[in-house]
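Ligand: zinc ion. Inputs:
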Amino acid sequence: MSTTAPAEEITPQIAAEVLHHYGHRDTHKPDAFYGLLVKLMAKADYANARSLANAFPTWAAAVDLARYSSTGTDTLAAIAAGTPRPSVAPNDYSPFADADPRYRHVFPTPVFFPDPIPGGLALAACLQLSVVPDESLQILDLDAPPIGLCSDCVDWIRTGTDRPSDKPYIECVGCETPTQHDGLCAVCRIEGHDRWKAGTRKTPQLTS
Ligand SMILES: [Zn+2]
Ligand SMILES: [Zn+2]
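Predicted complex:
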């Protein structure tokens, strides 16, 4: 199941208004409410950013680009100028994925655990768990990445550095190991994903 990424819904006006907050004073100034919303999103910690993103997904996607992606302001400027940009859909759904479901995450990963197998769950370059897509994204132009690609994944691949996770350590409900994966560790999530897939997916139909 793939859905449209909120980043694809960023309008030229939203892009311009978020850029205004980030110092591009030649762009459109937001009205008072959206000006405050962008200010709030730009300062929000992990939990509050998630809450705000649920209510205002497109604005959150635009702020995420400016806040976290080294190419984000270029992307917003391209959107504001109306330049078409390729876009990618988020990874397939899994109830055991904890990577941001609004974005496409990239493999291979900075760690070797486990080997990314298409359809399986594995750590993406941003160190969150995501369903491995069928195709490789390594051929993309990461200096002008498509809209909808996870900015943390892009930054890791471009620079070899990742943004430390600000998620809290919580004991895993499965094995009691402290984990930054929202209370279910990577190992338990991967096992859960495999069980979920085995139980819910039908045998693939052979097509000619
Ligand atoms: Zn990612
Ligand atoms: Zn566990």
